[in-house]
Amino acid sequence: MNRLAAWLALVSVLAVVNYAARFSDATTPDDVLYQYSTAISSLILFAVMLGIVLAIARFDRAMLAVRRPRSWRGSLKLMFGVLVGVYVLGGLLSPFLDPGEEQGLTPDEWDSSRWLPFALNAVVVAGVAPIVEELTFRGLGYSLLVRWGATVAISGTALAFALGHGLLEGLPLLLALGAGLAYIRYRQDSVVPGILLHSLFNAIALAASLSL
């Protein structure tokens, strides 16, 4: 129970900090992903998160579900289904909600003269963030909640994942993505497919923002 309390404290602090930033008067610069400081501060944040998660899990790979999935073919089918489902939901909600604009991370246009800081930020967004977040929610969080059943673990980690991003308009989409990733964790008993899907989702979102 101490591990669960520590994990709940971690995700609660994450949600409070992000929502506090969302409702503050500060505005996110349009070129935030073209700044080296963004990549550096994000890396520091994710390093702290990962350190806390590893400490709570006591470096137990089984608790973090860092292992081969039961079936790669089955994983790919689930990944495809979740990805399509999230995009369909996003399309249905797009006339009413704009999560990308709310988050304010994606640049309005491509600036080739600042490709290096953008590339570093892209690595963080599509590489580092998915690994740390999947270990936090579908790894440690799922393992701590599954004692009350898979339904509680899936819904609980999905809610924590969605709230942890500090968004309002993006909440439905994040809930759906979180639930889909947790369902893959349930079916495949591994965070690896979820990391790959999460990384792909972030990379597509980043690439799409530059093509619009």
Main pleated-sheet profile: none
Helix content: over 70%
How widely separated are the two ends?
47 Å
Poorly predicted parts: none
- SSE order: HHHHHHHHH
Proportion of residues in extended strands = under 5%
Task: Note the quaternary state here.
Answer: single chain
- Radius of gyration of CA atoms, rounded to a whole number: 17 Å
Return the average pLDDT rounded to an integer.
92
Folded structure, characterized:
Helix 1 packs parallel to helix 7 (150-164). The chain is mostly helical. The chain has one domain (2-211). Helices cover 75% and strands 0% of the residues. The protein is built from nine helices and no strands. The chain is globular and about 50 Å long. The protein has helices at residues 2-22, 36-57, 61-64, 72-93, 99-103, 115-145, 150-164, 171-188, 192-211.
List the main descriptive attributes of the protein structure presented here.
mainly alpha; globular; 212 residues; single chain
Helix and strand topology:
Layout: H1 2-22, H2 36-57, H3 61-64, H4 72-93, H5 99-103, H6 115-145, H7 150-164, H8 171-188, H9 192-211
Short description, anyone?
This protein has 212 residues and is mainly alpha-helical. The protein is 75% helix and 0% strand.
